[in-house]
Amino acid sequence: MQTGKIGVTSENLFPIIKKFLYSDHDIFLREIVSNAVDATQKLRTLASKGEYKGDVSAARVEVKLDKDAKTITVSDNGIGMTAEEIEKYINQIAFSGANEFLEKYKDDANAIIGHFGLGFYSSFMVSERVDVITKSHKESSQAVKWSCDGNPEFTIEDVEKEDVGTDIVMHINEDSKEFLEENKLEEILDKYCKFLPIPVIYGKKKEWKDGQQVDRDEDNQINETEPAWTKMPSDLKDEDYQKFYRRLYPIGDEPLFNIHLNVDYPFTLTGILYFPKIKNNFEVQKNKIQLYSNQVFVTDSVEGIVPEFLTLLHGVLDSPDIPLNVSRSYLQSDSNVKKISSHINKKVADRLNQIFKDNREDFEKKWDDLKIFIEYGMLTEEKFYDRAMNFFMFKNAEGKYFTYEEYEKLIKDNQTDKDKNLIYLYTTNTEEQYSFIEAAKDKGYDIIVLDDVLAPHLINKFEQKQSDKRFVRVDSDVVENLIKKEDSAKEELSWEQKQDLSPVFQAVCPEDKDYSFIVDFQDLGEAGAPMVITRSEFMRRMKDMSAAQGGM
Ligand code: ADP
Ligand code: MG
Fold it and tell me: Could you state a single Gene Ontology molecular function term (predicted)?
């Protein structure tokens, strides 16, 4: 047996790694299992190049729990290591073997998960000792066992091992006993490993027999090696997308539509994003998008990685180009991440536009469930605003849908004020403002419904972007200032009559110290109400705004 000391820097590094490498200790399993997956993929690459003659068709990784021995073992039938390779890859901290391998097989090894830096050493977060028992794929290799207790000293010795591959045996420490529970382990495997590209086996499939759960003679594979996002969109049907959604979120409403992302230049990004139904008050769980790197789960909190409004979406993103083992603040400033983020932004807008064009009827049907999402995007992302103007829908009081352009055409001749501003009449509540809506309709005006929580902000945004347009709630005084159609000559009250009648109505209006009601008489033609009581649009908006900021 040989003993040795791991590189000088490690003495200082070890305690840090053990405690702080990942605040989330679960991650050790992801690291060790993904190394095992890498090892099998490396062997496949070698076989495909004729550099390895053995059979690689049955690549697999097995996770075993031994409660009595207090060990978790991860075994693979991958590339294995010689004693020299252990020295190189395991002993030299921060030496990423995957990097070197990638360098050598640049073109076809891009499936290798090499982004986790100190991955292997994360096993010491939960172990008092780690053994690596490994036999290299190289012909007539001697199997070796490396063993280390978390101090820089390690031992290495020759052992018997029949098959090529590696067993990583983690002797779980006292503080980490929770990982020796079958259910806990299953839960972590499901979280991090459920879409790994090589079969991962954990125990046997269970069945019920005489009221008891017993093992069947069949391996329990915990992962799906070809999840939907890795396939070509043309190979998938609607059901497949729905099924995959269910796999991600077993409960909840069906999504409205999905976007299958598939980019390989200038960065690699795949994924499927789903649009959930979003109710008026954001009754949707944010941060349901799961981020993967080559099918390894990384995180489900994607703030700073995708634009804020996209965190309302559900689904999966997978990119080996996102640096995954770094801090969130670093991620946010990373230029790749920024590019990816703006790309997703564009894709989402493109896809919505396409759905709108391909099947407008369906788009309109889903609009009410979708609009909050789109409005949120328009308010927070300038570029998205510009793109969304193609498919943003104005719904009028009759339930008809118009694009911005169409709507402008509709009201252009009839709804301008004396300064030639186009006036968009809107209602925030079709029931409360019913009589105003009816009165406006009688005059031949069209009214749009802007009744969700974001509408006031959106109105400000519209007006800010287009200075020749004004939004006026249907019960505001400005309605009366619209240029009226000259068609029918209608009888009106005289100025004196109005002066006499006004105080009568004013007297029954509720008192409000902030802004008063305006009594306005209209023509006395056969249609419509002869008189309206309104409030100033400007004053009302001011009041609404201060109410939203704290109910003053
Ligand atoms: P990375 O995966 O980023 O290279 P790790 O610390 O996870 O970093 O692993 C270091 C190196 O150890 C790997 O690159 C690989 O060469 C080697 N290694 C780890 N686990 C295995 C394994 N199961 N089979 C073969 N080699 C392994
Ligand atoms: Mg690794």
Answer: ATP hydrolysis activity
